[in-house]
Amino acid sequence: MTPNQFESFAALDAIPRVDAKFFGRIPGLNVSAEKAEAMQRIEPYHSKLLERYGLGTFPTATAEQVHGNKLSHVTSGSTSPSVGADGLITDCKGITLCIYVADCAPVWVVARDGSAGALLHSGKKGTALGIVPEGIRQLCTMTDLIPRDLVLVIGPCIRPPCYETDFAAEIWRQASETGVKEIHDQMICTACHPELYYSYRRELGLTGRMLATLTLLPES
């Protein structure tokens, strides 16, 4: 990925009527600030990027992200984040799920047939609380799916030696134990690539956030 473009993932691109993107660092934008101020600066750029890459007409849904394991079932877009949630789950088409990260892992869990999906925020705490297996469980409960029907992708996140805990490896283990067979890890450390990613650890908390998205596309 080059700055101001998005990353996509072959495993998710292969699923019909699914759009999954990961937007990294915005070149030249000063985001050396506390989270609220940094987000205020970066959100207009994210809106423009969503529009540029064909997602501007869809309503969005976001989560409060409190490093827990609660998921919100999304049936419509909202201007307010889902309170207390660190994951979003839907089987509704035409809504863009959005998660923000700056070292924590974005995790996509999507049905192979494109009928449903979840987008999760899983850092050290969320992983320890099992947000990924909880997301898999809820996705299967909401649908007629079983874990073997799902594709899971772990996006860029901080990793050893830049961080003391390899929570990406734990996410893989947890997902595998649920019965998910197709698991992909990008194996990219956000702290090692300052030209591409924001890193809370590397930038001592004064930084922006990357944007992960998941959209189940309408038929027409």
Task: Write a brief caption for the model.
This protein is α/β, with parallel strands linked by helices and 220 residues long. 23% of the residues lie in helices and 24% in strands.
Written description of the protein model:
It is a single chain. The protein is α/β, with parallel strands linked by helices and 220 residues long. It has a single domain, classed as CNF1/YfiH-like putative cysteine hydrolases (4-Layer Sandwich). The strands form two sheets. Strands 4-5-8-7-9-10 form a six-stranded mixed β-sheet. Strands 1-2-11-6-3 form a five-stranded mixed β-sheet, with no helix packed on it. A hairpin with a 5-residue loop joins strand 7 and strand 8. Helix 4 runs parallel beside helix 5. The mean pLDDT is 96.
Please describe the topology of this protein.
Elements: E1 6-7, H1 10-13, E2 18-23, H2 35-52, E3 60-62, E4 71-73, E5 87-90, E6 96-101, E7 105-111, E8 117-122, H3 124-128, H4 131-142, E9 150-154, H5 167-178, E10 182-185, E11 210-216
Parallel strand pairs: 3-6, 4-5, 9-10
Antiparallel strand pairs: 1-2, 2-11, 5-8, 6-11, 7-8, 7-9
Helix pairs in contact: 4-5
